[in-house]
Amino acid sequence: MSLVQSQVLGEKMIQKISADEESLKNSSPIQHQKTSCSTQDDMQNNNEAQPLEESMCMSYILPDEAFQIRNLDTGELIDIRDENEDSYASNAAKVLNLERSQSDIERFYQARRRMNASLWEAVERNDINHIKHLLDKRIYRDVVAQTNSKGLNNWTALHLAAADGFQEACETLISNGEVTNIDARTSINRTPLHLACLHGHLSVVKLLVRNLAEINAIDDDGNTPLHYAVMNGHSNIVDWLLRKNPDISIENYQHKPALECALNFDVYNSIIDYCQKLNIPLKIKPFSRTPFHSVLLHNSREDLVNKLLTKCSAKPSSKDLKTFNERPKKMTSLHSKSPIRKCKSMKPIMFPEDRHITSKLGPRDFKGLYQLGKGSFGEVFLVENNTTMEKYALKVLRKEKVLENKLIKYAWTERNIMLNISHPFIVKLHGSFQTPEKLCFMMEYCPGGDLGTHIARERRFPLDKAKFYLCEVILALEELHKNEIIFRDLKPENVILDNEGHAKLTDFGLSKEGMIEGQLAKSFCGSVAYLAPEMLRRVGHTKAVDWYLVGVLLYEMLVGVPPYYSSNREQLFNNIQRGKLKIPSTINSETKDFLKELLQRDPTRRLGYHNDAKELKEHAFLRDVDWASFINRLVTPPKASPIRRMFKSIPQERIFGLLEDEEIVERRIEGWSFISPR
C-alpha cells in the first residue's frame, strides 16, 4: 500500500468517524464521553458492573470502516480488531497517519480489554448470567467480550472453565461466544481438553469432544489428553475417551505412550482391553509396569520384580486396591514391625509434663540479638539464654497465619524431623515452646551464614570447595531418606555453616515424612528456581527429587546461578522442562557427567533413583571420597569469609508477641513444648 493511498483512505476514515461521533452525541441519551474504569470497578458485583459495561459500550461504538485497512495493490481487507495481535491500534495509526482517530481506537481497545477481564472474572466465579450478559452482542456490539482473548500464560476463558470443571460455563462460552476456539492453546500448548482430563472433569471432557475438540492434541511435553487422564488415575475419563478411538500409540517426550503412564490397575486394564478388542498390537517395554492380581508392579530391575512377586503371592485384600500413589509398591505384611511403618505414622510427640516444662522455658528466658531471616509466616532471630549465655537460632511462627492457612501439619513436620533425626550435618532442635501468638523452635545456631550468601560474595566456588559441601549435603539427605523423609527444599539458603565451617541442612517445613519406597508425593512445593521437572508437571515425585536438587546445588556452586535460570518465571519453568543444559567448558568431564545424570528430567533415569545415595557415591566424580572421614567430621572444611553481625537488643514483644495472656489454654497447641535432654 503506497503512502498516498494510505493517506487518502485515512482522510475518509476521519470524516466517517467524525460524522458518527456527531450522530452519537445527538441521538444517544448517554453523552459521548470518556469512561474511566479501574480494576476495582471491574470486580464489583453484577448489579454495579453491568451498567458500567453498557455505558462503556455506548461510548466507543465506531463504524467497521474505522478498523479496516484495504491494501489497494492486492485488494485485501484487514480488520485490526484482533486484540491478540501486538500493537494493533498504534500500528494502524502509524500506517494511516491518523492522529485524530488514534485516541478513539485506543479507547476502544481499553474498553474491549476491560470487557475481557470481566469475562474471565465471571468465569472464575461460575456466574452464568453475567457470562451471557458480557457475550450479548445486541448490548455491547463491537466491544462485546471475546471468548478467544488470551490472558496470563495464554489461557482463554474456556481454559479457565475447563480446568475448574464448570460445564455450564463451558457450554455458554461455546454457544454464545463468537466462533470460540475449542482447541485454543496455552503458552505450553495445552488445550481446554488437556486441562479437563488433567483435573478429572468428565462432564467437561464429554462436552468438549462432542463439540469437536481435538482428542489427540499434543502439548509441549508430548502429552495427549489421554496421557493426563491415565497418569492421574481418572479411570472414568479413560474409559469414555477410549470409546472415541484416540491414538494410543502417541508417545510423550519421555517416549511413553499413555499405557506406560498408568498408575493404577483399572486404568491399565482398560487400555489393555481396548487394544485386545481392536487387535491393536502392544509394544511392552522391558521396564513397563506389570499387572499382578489387582495391582500394578513397577519393573525397575528384574530382581526387584522377583522380590515383588514373592511378596505379592497372596491375593490382595480390598484395602490394598488403591491407586499407585496411595500405597507402597512393595506389598509387605500388614503386621510388619518395620521402622518404616513407625516413621510413616509419626505423630506429634506428647509430653505429660508439657505445661511444667513451658513454665521453666519461655520467652522471658531469652534476649533477642539479631534478626537472621524472615518468611511469609514467621521469622528467625538470634537469641541468647539469659542464664547460660548460650546462643540459639529461634524460629517463630505466627499462630494466626499458620492456623488460617492450614499449615500446622508443616510446623509439626519440621519439629518432628529435627527432634527425631540426630546427624552431624542436620541442624539440631534443642527445644520448642509457645506463646499466645507464636510457635517457637529453639535451634542450634550456625554462625557461618548460608551457602547462598557465600556464593553471592564469591560468585562461584572452586571445585574442591563445592565438592566438600556437596558430600556433607549428600550424607544428610541419605540419613533423611533412610528415615523415609524427602527434603524437597534443597537450595543454597537452606545449607548453613556451623562454627567449624561444616554444612548443615535446615528448614524442614516442606519435607515429606513416611515416604515408603516407590510411593509418590503429590504436593506442589519448593522454591521457584529450584523446582524439579516432575514437580512442575505435578505428576508426583519420589526421593529422586532430592537428587535433582543436589545437581542444581552443585551447578550453582560451580557456575554462580542455577541451571536454566531466567528472571521471567514462565521462561524459567519452560527452561526447566525443555531447555538445553549449558555447562561451561571450564568444568571437567567427570563433573559434567555427574551433573547431567543428576539433572536428568526423567526421574526413573536419574542418578540415585534405584539405589539412592549409593549410586552417587559410586560415580567417578565421588569415587575418591573418604566417606567415613566425612561422617566423623574429620575432613577440614574450606575457608569461608566470616559473617559479621552487629548485635542490638530486640524487644521481646517484637519476637514473641503479647505475653500477658500466656496461660490462656484455648490458644495452646497440645504437645508442642519440650526441652531436649543434655
General description of the model:
The chain has 28 helices and twelve strands. Among the domains are: 1-146, no CATH class; 354-447 and 643-675, Phosphorylase Kinase, domain 1 (2-Layer Sandwich), CATH 3.30.200.20; 460-631, Orthogonal Bundle (Transferase(Phosphotransferase), domain 1), CATH 1.10.510. α8 (157-164) runs antiparallel to α9, α13 (235-242) packs parallel to α14 and α21 (463-482) runs antiparallel to α23. It is globular, with a radius of gyration of 31 Å. β1 (68-70) and β2 (77-79) form a beta hairpin. 41% of the residues lie in helices and 9% in strands. A six-stranded antiparallel sheet has the order 5-6-7-9-8-12, with helices on both faces. It has helices at 3-27, 39-42, 46-59, 88-96, 99-125, 128-134, 137-140, 157-164, 167-176, 192-199, 202-210, 225-231, 235-242, 265-277, 302-311, 339-344, 354-360, 399-404, 408-420, 451-458, 463-482, 533-537, 544-559, 569-578, 589-598, 613-618, 627-631, 652-656, and strands at 68-70, 77-79, 289-292, 295-298, 366-374, 378-385, 391-398, 429-434, 438-444, 495-497, 503-505, 674-675. Residues 366-622 form the Protein kinase domain. It comes from Blepharisma stoltei. Residues 25-45 have a biased composition (Polar residues). Keywords: ANK repeat, ATP-binding, Kinase, Nucleotide-binding, Serine/threonine-protein kinase, Transferase.
